[in-house]
Design goal:
alpha/beta, Rossmann fold, 5 helices, 5 strands
Length: 130
């Protein structure tokens, strides 16, 4: 059973990592932050987060590549992934979904909407593990 109460935040913007960190703290989760896709994959393996929040556009690997890689690994295949992006195009949402993202949130992030989506994803994961 998954008991980690950590969120992995993957974004190259320090101010956005801080914002998401505060939102996750309000939900009772610690957060680990990284700024690029390669480090995200290593950190996901090391930290075993309860949820991962990844920016669409990142240095090294894109958010889509990170998401696809996470879904291919047995240890992260079922971890909820929230893709965040300033891009609001339907094709970006579709690409995120095809890569395995469970949710797509646009920047600037609406605090209430983000929190509700995270709660829902964590609840669904808990029910699947029960």
């Amino acid at each position: 059973m998954h008991t980690t109460r950590k969120a992995l935040i993957v974004d190259d913007a320090p101010e956005f990592r801080l914002l998401l960190g505060s939102l996750f703290r309000e939900l009772g989760l610690e957060s680990v932050t990284v700024r690029d896709g390669d480090t995200a994959l290593a950190m996901a393996r090391e930290e075993r987060p309860a949820i991962i929040c990844v920016d669409l556009m990142l240095p090294t690997l894109s958010g889509l590549e990170v998401c696809t890689a996470l879904r291919q690994r047995p240890e992260t295949a079922d971890v909820p992934i929230v893709m965040v992006s300033a891009r609001r195009f339907p094709q970006d949402r579709a690409a995120a979904s095809q890569a395995g993202a469970d949710a797509y949130v646009t920047k600037p992030v609406d605090r209430t909407d983000f929190s509700n989506q995270v709660r829902s994803l964590l609840w669904q994961r808990q029910q699947a593990e029960a």
